[in-house]
Recover the amino acids of this structure.
């Protein structure tokens, strides 16, 4: 079955109406657009006039507004019966003023029935390779993850203050052969090293199409104020993931180095991903949101329609 099959087909007809507002309509948002085409009226917020034709061609009604300029968001109040928030926080600073500005705008008049926020599994911090479910307390170790925790708090505030069914998807590394930066191919071609087995960390993944389906399911099936790990079934260490990809592509496996050596050969951002190890428990995704993964493992997902013009995804 094609990965863009509409996941709303099995829902009652009353769920097939309404207006979906997508905030942060990049790759995943556009995959959501394809999945709800013909079932929902979709509005997409963008701060770039140059993206208006692209979004319109994809089937959305573009709205100009800037999360960094709260006054431009006032028109969003009451527009969407459901809101999907996929925009990242700022790269610097404390908290997430963008999400705070959005939820304040949505609370001004007729708040949406549901709001789903795409967060990151990085909010859990290092878990020593343990299996992690959604009841585990957050321990963000990086400023990037701390800003995501602030965004989650703002989303929960709207849920409590305005009676919105607010949901949070905690997302690991997103990959897809047809996504820019969506495979490890470029990393492998550069010969970027991976950690040796005794120093390596567990990492989790989700195919971009399955993530889009999880977003739609959360908008319609998510429980109030609920966190869901949006992860596939793969349980691999990071270096093993790169070895798997290398074997699939017929490329040399990456060299393995000790953690002490990696510090002198990798960027601080890459090193930060190698400081955290966890395996995400995805039972809520399957049982509550009833998402049947079309790409349950990275082996299955990387093999499908792999394109040589793509690069690397990061958690």
């Amino acid at each position: 079955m094609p990965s863009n099959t509409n996941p709303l087909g099995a829902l009652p007809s009353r769920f097939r109406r309404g207006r979906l507002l997508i905030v942060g309509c990049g790759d995943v948002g556009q995959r959501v657009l394809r999945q709800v085409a013909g079932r929902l009226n979709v509005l997409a917020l963008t701060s770039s006039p140059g993206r208006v034709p692209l979004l319109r061609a994809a089937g959305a009604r573009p709205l100009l507004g800037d999360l960094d300029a709260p006054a431009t968001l006032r028109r969003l109040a009451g527009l969407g019966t459901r809101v999907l928030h996929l925009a990242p926080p700022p790269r610097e600073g404390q908290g997430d003023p963008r999400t705070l500005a959005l939820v304040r705008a949505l609370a001004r008049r007729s708040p949406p029935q549901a709001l789903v926020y795409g967060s990151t599994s990085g909010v859990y911090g290092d878990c020593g390779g343990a299996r992690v479910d959604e009841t585990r307390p957050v321990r963000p170790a990086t400023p990037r993850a701390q800003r995501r925790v602030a965004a989650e708090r703002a989303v929960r505030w709207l849920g409590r203050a305005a009676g919105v069914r607010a949901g949070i998807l905690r997302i690991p590394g997103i990959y897809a052969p047809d996504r820019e930066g969506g495979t490890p191919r470029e990393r492998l071609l550069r010969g970027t090293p991976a950690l040796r087995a005794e120093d390596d960390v567990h990492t989790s993944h989700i195919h971009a199409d399955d993530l889009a389906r999880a977003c739609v399911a959360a908008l319609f099936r998510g429980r109030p104020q609920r966190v869901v790990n949006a992860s596939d079934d793969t349980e691999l260490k990071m270096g093993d993931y790169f070895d798997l990809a290398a074997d699939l592509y017929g490329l040399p496996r990456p060299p393995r180095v000790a953690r002490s050596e990696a510090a002198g050969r990798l960027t601080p951002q890459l090193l930060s991903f190698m400081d955290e190890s966890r395996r995400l428990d995805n039972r809520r995704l399957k049982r509550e949101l009833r998402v049947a993964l079309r790409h349950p493992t990275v082996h299955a997902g990387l093999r499908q329609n792999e394109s040589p013009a793509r690069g690397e995804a990061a958690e």
Notes: The chain is about 30% helix and 15% strand. Confidence is low (pLDDT under 50) at residues 1-9, 307-315.
